[in-house]
Amino acid sequence: MSPSARNISLDVYRGFVMLLMMAEVLHLSRVAPGFIGYHQSHVDWAGCSLHDLIQPSFSFLVGVALPYSIASRMAKGAAVPKLFAHAIWRAFLLVALGIFLRSTRGPQTNFTFEDTLTQIGLGYPFLFLLGFRSARWQWGALGAILTGYWLAWTIYPLPATYDYQAVGVPADWPHHYNGLAAHWNKNNNLGLAFDQWFMNLFPRALPFVANRGGYLTLSFIPTLGTMILGLIAGRWLREDAPLRRYCLTAAACLAFGLLLHFTGLNPIVKRIWTPAWTLFSGGACFLLLVLFRWVIDIRGYRRWTFPLLVIGMNSIAAYLIAHLFEGFAFSSLRIHLGEHFSAFHGAAVLAFYWIILYWMYQRKIFLRI
């Protein structure tokens, strides 16, 4: 494969992920509670829905794309120091963009580091450096990150008594754990202790106490593990490795994650990105990659992919549109179509998003960081 060759299946996988995110405007969790609604919303704590795979897939694909990016830039004569400087700049832009998007509805800058873009940005320089190392280094780094992170949380001393209501968690919340797994309870863990110090270093209207969803800054560390799994997959793609290698890796990651969960060593929790979640969701990402690669690259079924390709080739634009245009689109529809068309507003907004991206695609306008 040439350094500049574009892998269509990756763009389609990315487009599928971004479509899942943009489709939040359909509000299926409200209008179709049940199987469909469950998979268009995040689980309360432990477990996994299809919607929960959006962020790990986005992070995983950052890792998959890195070997292609490095090969393309080095083929054009870029030196490693210059590439690393670009990686640092890209990381800064991702963090800054994440903070900007989380501040659009507030009275001041909302310094927060737990969303998708900031989490990727915080880990990206380390991922870039691993892109030049051997597979043994990459697997070793993954093992060290997940083991060290698990150990740090496990030895963190939990208080004998704890006021969960003070951190936004009902005392009778059904998702509390006991024993070793209690170290991964919502808003009573090492990650929150760090954030109660770190987040209050920034200007805030009120002191930071806890994130309502339980999300944490330190989750960027195991998220880096997800990106490393993507980096390994990206190297295999460039080497044209057989699909059974991906399938075996997926099976191993899924099995190990489930083993950690059901033995009580480490629950599968996306909101705090536990090591078990890194492995479980990483295995799911490998399976999705295999699915798209088999259908598109091996079987050659490509005609159906165009709508997803339009989204996937402009994923940053899709991310911005979904976060910035929703209010404008809904209010415009209410003004011009009236409330009696409310059942179709979500579908109309989603179509509006795609038309913008199609317009950009036709004119070869692609946002890059």
Q: Which characteristics define this entry?
A:
0% strand, mainly alpha, globular, 15 helices, 369 residues
Structure report:
The chain has 369 residues and is an all-alpha fold. It has one domain (46-304). The protein has 15 helices and no strands. The chain has helices at residues 8-22, 28-31, 35-38, 54-75, 80-101, 116-130, 135-155, 190-198, 220-238, 243-262, 275-298, 306-312, 315-324, 326-337, 342-362. Helix 4 crosses helix 9 and helix 10 (243-262) runs antiparallel to helix 11. It is globular. It starts with 7 loop residues before the first helix and ends in a 7-residue tail after the last helix. The mean pLDDT is 92.
Share of β-strand residues:
under 5%
Average pLDDT number: 92
Envelope shape = globular
Spatial separation of the terminal alpha carbons: 24 Å
**What is the string of SSEs from the N terminus onward?**
HHHHHHHHHHHHHHH
Q: How would you sum up the major sheet? A: none
Q: What does the radius of gyration come to?
A: 21 Å
Overall SS class: mainly alpha
Low-confidence stretches: none
Number of helices: 15
Q: Helical content, roughly?
A: 55-70%
Number of domains: 1
